[in-house]
Amino acid sequence: MTRVLDARDVSYSYPDGTAAIEAFDLTVEAGERVAVVGPNGAGKSTLIQLLGGLIEPDGGTITYFESGAPADDLRDRIAVLPQHPDEYLFNSTVRDDLEYGPAQLSIPKEQARERVASLADRLELTALLDQPPFRLSGGEQRRAALASAVAVDPDLLLLDEPVADVDADHRERVLSLLDRRHEQGETQIVSTPNVDLVPQVADRVVLVDSTGSVVADGPVTEVLADRSLLETCGLEAPTVARVFEMAGVSDPPLTVAEGAARLSDLLE
Ligand SMILES: Nc1ncnc2c1ncn2[C@@H]1O[C@H](COP(=O)(O)OP(=O)(O)OP(=O)(O)O)[C@@H](O)[C@H]1O
Ligand SMILES: [Mg+2]
């Protein structure tokens, strides 16, 4: 199995001296879906930018695909959806933003156009393609930035809060796109403070506390079932688990689908 990402002893401080990431290690194998979960200010967005090569670590190393190549030389294989997508939508129309990545990588125009049309259709952006990106709503900008990230068809996709501001219908579209891409072999790293989202986007959780230290790294079902660990990080158990716990169930479900199955058993 290919090691897609190997981050060793990575640290990063902002110019004002804020130490956002210290001695961070993470290894991700091909095809994994990893959620980095932690409270506000833990350093998740900083980490996504570091792992995606948008900012350079002050210390440590990040190796991609077992090669010595830096992220900037691997823009055809690594893509990032940042937390503030408006900063990365800078062309005069949404269409130009979506076609920008493929054009930089010299992907033939016709192929790029087909790809963009298909992504716009899946994420319901078609009617917005001729709009300037700054006119889009927050949720529309996030969907446009996601389409722009995946337009290069990366092997490693890093997503910072991929469904923040996105309504329920479009959230399903985003999640189904991510599922499909994962089934096709894409490795995904998602950052979120939302534990309810985790079972829908990941199989493995890296839980970080408010200082950015890793306090757990394991299967979703194990990490999210450990309530005291979540509380250490200022997080609650998934909503569905809390509902079942309130009703006196000691081994609550972690996902809505599991909860629904348990309820229908009870109601039979
Ligand atoms: N440009 C900046 N200059 C100085 N400090 C910053 C800057 N950006 C972020 N920070 C600080 O770095 C730390 C980590 O911020 P980061 O945005 O990575 O957290 P986060 O885990 O993504 O939080 P959230 O869940 O709110 O998105 C915080 O203490 C934050 O205040
Ligand atoms: Mg963030």
UniProtKB/TrEMBL annotation:
CDD domains: ABC_cobalt_CbiO_domain1. The keyword Transport applies. It is a peripheral membrane protein. It is found in: Cell membrane. Residues 5-236 form the ABC transporter domain. SMART domains: AAA. Its main location: membrane. GO terms for molecular function: ATP binding; ATP hydrolysis activity; ATPase-coupled transmembrane transporter activity. Gene3D superfamilies: P-loop containing nucleotide triphosphate hydrolases. SUPFAM superfamilies: P-loop containing nucleoside triphosphate hydrolases. InterPro entries: AAA+_ATPase (IPR003593), ABC_transporter-like_ATP-bd (IPR003439), ABC_transporter-like_CS (IPR017871), ABC_transpr_CbiO/EcfA_su (IPR015856), ECF_ABC_transporter_ATP-bd (IPR050095), P-loop_NTPase (IPR027417). The keyword Transmembrane does not apply. It holds the Pfam family ABC_tran. PROSITE patterns: ABC_TRANSPORTER_1, ABC_TRANSPORTER_2. Keywords: ATP-binding, Membrane, Nucleotide-binding, Transport. GO terms for cellular component: ATP-binding cassette (ABC) transporter complex. Belongs to the ABC transporter superfamily. Probably part of an ABC transporter complex. Responsible for energy coupling to the transport system. This is Energy-coupling factor ABC transporter ATP-binding protein. It comes from Halapricum hydrolyticum.
